[in-house]
Automatic annotation (TrEMBL):
InterPro entries: Amidase, Amidase_CS, Amidase_dom, AS_sf, GatA. Its EC number is 6.3.5.7. SUPFAM superfamilies: Amidase signature (AS) enzymes. The keyword Lipoprotein does not apply. It comes from Gracilibacillus marinus. Belongs to the amidase family. GatA subfamily. The lineage of its organism: Bacteria, Bacillati, Bacillota, Bacilli, Bacillales. The active site is at K52, S128, S152. It comes from the Bacteria. Heterotrimer of A, B and C subunits. Gene3D superfamilies: Amidase signature (AS) domain. This is Glutamyl-tRNA(Gln) amidotransferase subunit A. Allows the formation of correctly charged Gln-tRNA(Gln) through the transamidation of misacylated Glu-tRNA(Gln) in organisms which lack glutaminyl-tRNA synthetase. The reaction takes place in the presence of glutamine and ATP through an activated gamma-phospho-Glu-tRNA(Gln). Residues 1-440 form the Amidase domain.
Amino acid sequence: VDASFTRIHEVEDEVKAFITLNEEEARRQAKELDEQLGENASILYGMPIGIKDNIVTKGLRTTCASQILDNLHDPLYDATVIEKLNKEKTVTIGKLNMDEFAMGSTTENSSYAKTRNPWNTDYVPGGSSGGSAAAVAAGEVFFSLGSDTGGSIRQPASFCGVVGLKPTYGLVSRFGLVAFASSLDQIGPITRTVEDNAHLLQAIVGHDKMDSTSAHVEIPNYADALKQDARGLRIAVPKEYLQEGVNPEVKEAVLQALKQYEELGATWEEVSLPHSKYAVAAYYLLASSEASANLSRFDGVRYGKRTEKRVDMLDMFKYSRAEGFGDEVKRRIMLGTFALSSGYYDAYYKKAQKVRTLIKQDFEKIFEDYDVIIGPTSPTTAYKIGEKIDDPLTMYADDILTTPVNLAGLPGISVPCGFSSEGLPIGLQIIGKHFDEAMVYRAAYAYE
Ligand code: GLN
């Protein structure tokens, strides 16, 4: 914990990964843990961890990087994942920056600072869990938690050269995760290594009665899965994942990784995910629709900021939301409200749900014959700060390789697989069957 804060004080002025630091309390806890250290301490005992700021932490400010929650200084409860980490005795170092309400791919939509990519501070760290990835890459914390609705753990992990896993939908409780798109959101671990990642996942999984979508499944020992090597592994490589639009250096790095898998005794074949080209359109319709409903609770009445204008009740709602939400969040709410309005529902929302089913079936077919699917995490490496922020459509389009995984509810990991000529990290994405995180880790660890 000491080392963590020393590093934070060295680099945080530049990296800006945190919205809130928990220094006094973290140091107090660390001291207490030193005194209590026993023989049966968990592997995560005393480990400094950073938490994305859309995960509720009791007594520790939780803002979702939004002005509308700027004054939420003292949340009344812990998210289930935090309760689980408390049992392992990790130490929360602070709350990490993100795109407002997890909407974005660069962390530039934060209403606080712009987080910078530790590999080159002219570049974005990715998003929306940009703070979570940057803090790990900069050595500010060993571990962090992010959330992934449409790539927000894997893409920043890829941009920052760290390991990030989006678990199978339902494996990790969403209780206490501020909802963006409830049918897609999952919390997951971001770490330096695959092994660390497996240990952190182990600590946060399991059925939770507070989340009705939480699955009843048997939990394997993920660290055990790392003992198996890549021999006999059957890898599928979707041709759509290496098509034009994917940066040549990214493609080359992925092909190199596949060569390495061959040397390790795995085999790979080209397959097709024919409906993945519709994933971005379906994702933005569904995610925005769900967001428009979920974000209706921010009305200035129950919690969060209320306008200071002296207006009547209806205008109080309107002004509170107009002042509290940023541009991207408003764009999504309008898009979602439109897609759900009567007369348009069948044409947009219902159609997107059908596309979602087709995408899921594409994956199911491939998994009849293969253990994992491998491709790039993102078509590009990190963007320059400011490069894409005024062009949301191009930015959305870059979610083409991550969103299919959310729509199908599958687990996916991003592991580092080299650097571009500019010295920016490239990420390899490994996708598994539902609840087969063990296989995903096995494949990732063998490569790493
Ligand atoms: N780029 C995606 C979006 O803006 C990422 C969302 C996420 O996974 N939280 O919706």
